[in-house]
Amino acid sequence: MLKDKIYDAKKEVLAFEASDIQQAEDFRLKFLVSKGLIKALFNEFKSAPAEEKRMLGKELNELKKLAEEKYASVKKKLESNSQQEDENNRLDLTLAGEGVELGSRHPLSLVRKEIVEIFNKLGFVVSEGPEIEDDWHNFSALNFAPEHPARDMQDTFFIQRNGDEEIALRTHTSSVQVRMMEKGNPPFRAIMPGRVYRNEAISARAHCFFHQVEGLYIDKGVSFADLKQTLFYFVQELFGENTKVRFRPSYFPFTEPSAEMDISCTICKGEGCQLCKHSGWVEILGCGMVDPNVLENCKIDSKKFTGFAFGMGIERIANLKYEIKDLRLFSENDVRFLKQFESELI
Ligand code: DAH
């Protein structure tokens, strides 16, 4: 019966899938060409009983349409697969990979790391303290008189007044000395790197924040000779064996005696240049023997213990090492500047 033949053909068309072009072509030859199955069914239709013609005609047309659509969609799918294959074949797997862009350490981190490593070799450990400080740790315990000009609004960023207590951003890392000594029993041998803040107009030579490294050594019998030898060793390690040092008497409330230390100019090696203002020397740090008042403020017996302290600016050392003339470069995050330190030790 024609009706059954159409039904079987429809079933076959609907179920058809092709995994290659040849199968699709076989489908076309079977159903769609003029000697194919559908054409044959149309021929058979001509002699069908008149009362069935309407229904059979409709079925046959549907079958034809289904077969054509199936062929078109199967062919399209096969073609797009082969296009994808072509694209895959076009990938050149022997090409070199894209380079990964490495960042670099900030020059201040490089210098801090170097300073820490040198003092580590001498047995100094690293200690840190808070950037928000009270008056006691930043000033009073360090023997600053109540009217000392360093407490002035000009220099200090005050945050809040708690009754008698001022809360401020620390103006130097010497506050960490106090925190360390308050903790307990000497001996202490530590360096204390960190960020400090001062209320200054930003320019090439000054910034409202910068970085310091503080040093402290407290034990029985520590002398100024120990201070000199320690700092001399440090400078030779950092700037090279031929670097000379000189100490000039100075004043800090928390040390007695106090000194500032100069090194022979790293640029002109002492000949005289712009950096050292033709003196051959550049100042790099302040230092001195810890004032007995400071020891007593921190509950350390100043008859039994002595010690030395020093403090230096990391930016200052970085300026000398890398000849950076403008302080603002350190905080601008300009990659053209930062990239220049890529080759430095990680
Ligand atoms: N705190 C000082 C400053 O910020 C630096 C300093 C000088 C620290 C002498 C010290 C020191 O420990 O003994 O300028």
Question: What this model shows, in words?
Answer:
- The chain has helices at 2-15, 21-31, 37-46, 50-90, 107-121, 135-138, 174-183, 224-239, 292-297, 314-322, 335-338; strands at 125-126, 132-134, 158-162, 165-169, 188-197, 209-219, 245-252, 255-264, 281-290, 306-313.
- It has 2 domains: 2-85; 107-344, BirA Bifunctional Protein, domain 2, CATH 3.30.930.
- The chain is built from 11 helices and 10 strands.
- Helices cover 40% and strands 21% of the residues.
- The chain is rod-shaped, with a radius of gyration of 43 Å.
- A 7-stranded mixed beta sheet has the order 1-5-6-10-9-8-7, sandwiched between helices.
- A hairpin with a 2-residue loop joins strand 7 (245-252) and strand 8 (255-264).
- The mean pLDDT is 92.
- With 346 residues, it is an alpha+beta fold.
- The chain starts with a helix and ends in an 8-residue tail after the last helix.
- The structure holds 3,4-dihydroxyphenylalanine.
- The site of 3,4-dihydroxyphenylalanine has 11 residues, from strand 9 and strand 10.
- 3,4-dihydroxyphenylalanine binds next to strand 9 and strand 10.
**Number of helical stretches of at least 4 residues:** 11
Give the radius of gyration: 43 Å
- How can the largest sheet be summarized? 7 strands, mixed
According to CATH, the fold-level topology of the largest domain is BirA Bifunctional Protein, domain 2
